[in-house]
Amino acid sequence: MSTPESTSGGAASGRRQAVLGIEIDGAGADPGAWRGAEVDPRAILTGELAVRAVQRAEAAGIDFVTFADTLEAPTDVPGEVSVRLDALGLAARVAPVTQRIGLLPTITVTHTEPFHVQASVATLDHVSGGRGGWVADVSDSAEAAAVIGRRTPAPAAETWREARYVVDVSRRLWDSWEDDAIIRDAATGRYVDREKLHYVDFESPTFSIKGPSIVPRPPQGHPVTAVLARTPEALEAAADADVVLLPESDELVSQLSHLRRQSVTLGPAARAGLVVLASVVVRPRADGVARVVEQIENLVEAGVDGVHLRPGSLELDVPLIAGEVVPRLRDRGLIGTADRGGSLRGRLGLHKATNRYARSTR
Amino acid sequence: MTKQVHLAAHFPGVNNTTVWSDPAAGSQIDFASFRHLAETAERGTFDFFFLAEGLRLREVKGRIHDLDVVGRPESLTVLSALAAVTTHLGLAATVNSTFNEPYELAKRLATLDQLSGGRAAWNVVTSWDAFTGENFRRGGYLDKSDRYVRAQESLRIVRKLWDSWAADDLIADQVTGRFAREGAGAFADDGDHFRISGRFGLPPSPQGRPVIIQAGDSDQGREFAASGADVIFSWHGTFAAGQTFYKDVKARLAKYGRSEDSLKIMPAVTVVVGDTDADAVEKAAYIREQQVSGPTALVLAELLWGRDLSAYDPDGPLPELEPVVGSSVTQGRVGYNDPGPIVAEWRAQAEAHGWSLRETVINQQNRQTFIGSPATVAEAINRHVQEDAADGFVLVPHLTPTGLDDFVDQVVPLLRERGVFRTEYAGPTLRDQLGLRR
Ligand SMILES: Cc1cc2nc3c(=O)[nH]c(=O)nc-3n(C[C@H](O)[C@H](O)[C@H](O)COP(=O)(O)O)c2cc1C
């Protein structure tokens, strides 16, 4: 059985151990999931539904969970859920009642202050003991612009360009405290060694940040940055991510090779690896477990590093995924049997990020 | 009528009250520390757990201040995690209104309120300006007076969003497939700082809307609190100053059509409990020494004088220099509007007692409010509350995370015996604990 480290960066040597993620969105990916007799629709609001699903996924050995979100409110489509908790708050609520699963809330960066974004994600990493990350997203709708009222909506290419700056500055801010900056040196009375705190002095076309972060360096160094590549612009930006979620489509294979090429261009020094997952809706309750297993197997055959499962119903499909689908994938050697503990980066086979400010001579 | 005491726990943070060098001091950042203090507060049936905020690391003479605790996690994320491990304790986040947008704040706070079953609170702060602004898109851009205009507008809009759903807008009817009334959450606002419109995505929590806390001390700050806060957090913990502040703020309520019990006044205080009064006095003196090292004494003096005093010996006499008004020798904390009279007072006290600079700082900046045996402390707290020097207190422990253990184990039972503090929570929400209507 290979370790996650030996499968990093999608280096295809022999049979890989697939990474599994799962999505939390309301009562499930099916808009009508909340109407099932087994669902208490108000448990969407209290977070109970999410907690139960994540705990089931964790018990089955699933590597991480994403939490869907958008800046603008859901709308009045009949039959659909029209409330949504802030994904970051929900992920933090889940952290103390789970131990091993990675937690990636969706955070939109177009209108939100980059300084707050990085501080929140760093904090999620602290409260979860190194299991934090985020799905970086943009808001290009007029509705999202109107609720903030600060900027007019911009084209997708522009918002994604800006998002890349936000990802970049977030990592710089996570590095702005060296790992050993807190010294608690009673002899001199110094709590920190300020030589190990760094102003990032970052300038982008749309914002600037002085730094350092207000949050000490997160346990993973860099919490995991994921991008859901649902548009060509997002796919371009995904080159900067640690994890890319590719929605199932006819272009999946060509997108995958595009990403792999980009990854090679950037070079191993520039990044710690790129984990590419297919993001698919799965409904073992409706389609049967065997078909879902086959669906996942086919995707892995196509060359992705794993699959991001979007259960049709959290209450009906997640128990089947945990109890039936995952064990069968394990039996077939598609995923490991070992409990891949440690940090989320470790589970994904990503190296710990080195700190750009740390002097190697120390 | 006997008033009930309200109590909150402040997680020790970025200030020299926090004795990080004590062998018993734990992590300032690990979740386990936050959890310990929150669980202690909940064991003591406290009203709420409080997190302060700072959005830029403080500086002294252009360099990051390195003597106090530096750095902390982001409040709302920590509190959302604490919602998982507590059941009744209120969860109060300090969040700046200058460097946040009302829609995002309303959503994040409403989420915390939903996840905790109605236990969220927002401490609305407005400081600081250009220095902090360098970490944000707009940069340093608001005058002090404008900051309160923006704060007022932010609060008004955030409330509008929280109120944008009527009580029966959440339908969640599985048969008809209607989750919410059509158009629920619609809002629009057009003020000096904001022109926004759209839909808000969350219905009211069990407490209606999060509790509002305010911490400004100026005339403007007090008006802001009187017009719209549920709790005011102040520095005026001593009996006389407390009574003066209490009277002043409560008198401002009538013009906003509010009753005196609709705003709870809760000063920040520290408590030192010993087996006997004498024990406690000794312990308190030791803690003060730990809080103000020689280098810290110099920095606190620099904050007051507004000058570089590094050439002075903390164990020597006070600087003979005159203070500078409006200096930026230290950045990122509340400064002195008029240092002159305070410097004069320090000089007089130092002369009268023969104190060094460090001793003067230790004695003049001492915020230890309650010192004594459990019975003495319980009596003093109750007296402050019954005689309108406060409605309760925000306790700022000097140790992380065990600093309230003694208080909860030894003083809380005595307050309960006196019938002035709850033995169990009044209901599920923070408004229930504070006795506040929506
Ligand atoms: C007891 C107290 C606690 C405060 N805590 C914070 C804080 O945690 N973060 C912050 O940015 N400002 C804090 N402030 C600053 C106030 O929000 C306010 O901006 C500042 O006092 C200036 O306003 P003023 O002139 O009305 O006092 C605090 C103020 C007081 C009195």
TrEMBL record, chain A:
Is the keyword Transport in the record? no
Q: Binding residues for FMN, per the UniProt record?
A: 69, 106
Keyword Flavoprotein recorded: yes
Belongs to which family?
A: Belongs to the NtaA/SnaA/DszA monooxygenase family.
* PANTHER family for the chain: ALKANESULFONATE MONOOXYGENASE-RELATED, C2H2 FINGER DOMAIN TRANSCRIPTION FACTOR (EUROFUNG)-RELATED
Top-rank taxon of the source lineage equals: Bacteria
Coiled coil spans? none
The residue ranges of the Luciferase-like domain are 50-293
Q: Which organism is it from?
A: Kribbella solani
Query: Which SUPFAM superfamilies does its entry note?
Result: Bacterial luciferase-like
Q: What protein name does the entry list? A: Alkanesulfonate monooxygenase SsuD/methylene tetrahydromethanopterin reductase-like flavin-dependent oxidoreductase (Luciferase family)
InterPro entries reported for this sequence: Diverse_substr_monoxygenases (IPR051260), Luciferase-like_dom (IPR011251), Luciferase-like_sf (IPR036661), NTA_MOA (IPR016215)
Q: Which GO terms describe its molecular function?
A: monooxygenase activity; oxidoreductase activity, acting on paired donors, with incorporation or reduction of molecular oxygen
Q: Which UniProt keywords apply?
A: Flavoprotein, FMN, Monooxygenase, Oxidoreductase
TrEMBL record, chain B:
Q: Which GO terms describe its molecular function?
A: monooxygenase activity; oxidoreductase activity, acting on paired donors, with incorporation or reduction of molecular oxygen
User: Which keywords, in A-to-Z order, does the entry hold?
Assistant: Flavoprotein, FMN, Monooxygenase, Oxidoreductase
Keyword hit for Oxidoreductase: yes
Binding-site residues, FMN: 94, 148, 218
Presence of keyword Flavoprotein? yes
User: Where would I find the Luciferase-like domain in this sequence?
Assistant: 23-387
Q: Which domain of life is it from?
A: Bacteria
Q: Which family does it belong to?
A: Belongs to the NtaA/SnaA/DszA monooxygenase family.
> What protein does this entry describe?
FMN-dependent oxidoreductase (Nitrilotriacetate monooxygenase family)
* Species of origin: Kribbella solani
